[in-house]
From TrEMBL:
Reactions catalysed: L-serine + acetyl-CoA = O-acetyl-L-serine + CoA
Enzyme class: transferase
Gene Ontology CC: one annotated term: cytoplasm
Organism: Desulfosporosinus fructosivorans
InterPro entries the record matches: Hexapep, LbH_SAT, Ser_AcTrfase_N_sf, Ser_O-AcTrfase, Serine_acetyltransferase, Trimer_LpxA-like_sf
Protein name: Serine acetyltransferase
GO molecular function: serine O-acetyltransferase activity
Pathway: Amino-acid biosynthesis; L-cysteine biosynthesis; L-cysteine from L-serine: step 1/2
Length: 249
């Protein structure tokens, strides 16, 4: 069972990393593969009630790769750690099949209680660089977690999560056949909200100037960025500059 898993681990690197050129390059030059290899061996020993040796293997792997995976963590097939430095996976974490994790990500626990205290990750999940998933809860299948996000509550399947704390910004409800590795191209809900607020402020400023300042004639100035701003055609403006736009933030 161990060797088929390792063959699958090598194959997924070619599927997901265009920089991989040969099997030998993957075997000798990919710290993510080395960490998974060490973990497969350590986890087998852990399941057979060995304690010290699996921890020693885990520590050796951490020293050589910069990736820390507790021997007790359950990891499915097709697991890929890209770059890898700073990745931490706790003792009771469970990771499904075809999961991709980028550097600096953490599957961590909270509190000092024993038992299940780390997250369970579904299939076809992409965890962006620096993302933190903390606590004993489930992340569904086909989930994309944006770089730097902090997730501390259950996440349903077929969703995209970004921010601190993590917010669901996309919920397609349609299963994804292949994992999408574009963890950099994600919505920014805060920026979108600010844009909406600024557009509203612009509208209200124009109404106030027209109704209370005596300006009845407006000219629309077309700027080279193709955006339009309303300003008085004559006279000097008082107070705030009505040219403020969301793009100026």
């Amino acid at each position: 069972m161990l060797f088929p898993q390792l063959r699958r681990d090598v194959r997924v690197i070619f599927e997901r990393d265009p920089a991989a050129k040969s099997i030998w390059e993957v075997i000798f030059c990919y710290p993510g593969f080395h960490a998974v290899l060490f973990h497969r061996v350590a986890h087998w020993m852990y399941l057979h009630k060995m304690v010290l040796i699996p921890r020693m293997i885990s520590q050796l792997s951490r020293f050589l790769t910069g990736i820390e995976i507790h021997p007790g963590a359950k990891i499915g097939q097709g697991f890929f750690i890209d770059h890898g430095t700073g990745v931490v996976i706790g003792e009771t974490a469970e990771v499904g099949d075809n999961v991709t994790i980028y550097q600096g990500a953490t599957l961590g626990g909270t509190g000092k209680e024993k038992g299940k205290r780390h997250p369970t990750i579904g299939n076809n999940v992409v965890i962006g660089a620096g993302a933190k998933i903390l606590g004993s809860f489930k992340v569904g299948d086909n989930v994309k977690i944006g770089a730097g996000s902090v997730v501390n509550k259950p996440i349903p399947s077929d969703t995209t999560v970004v921010g601190v704390p993590g917010r669901i910004v996309l919920h397609h409800g349609v299963p994804i056949k292949d994992p999408d590795l574009r963890h950099d191209d994600l919505p920014d809900p805060v920026n979108e909200m600010l844009k909406c607020l600024m557009h509203r402020v612009e509208y209200l400023e124009q109404r106030l100037i027209k109704e209370e300042s005596g300006y009845n004639v407006f000219e629309i100035i077309q700027h080279n960025d193709s955006s339009k701003r309303a300003v008085p055609a004559t006279g000097e403006r008082e107070g705030c500059d009505v040219r403020m736009r969301s793009d100026d933030l």
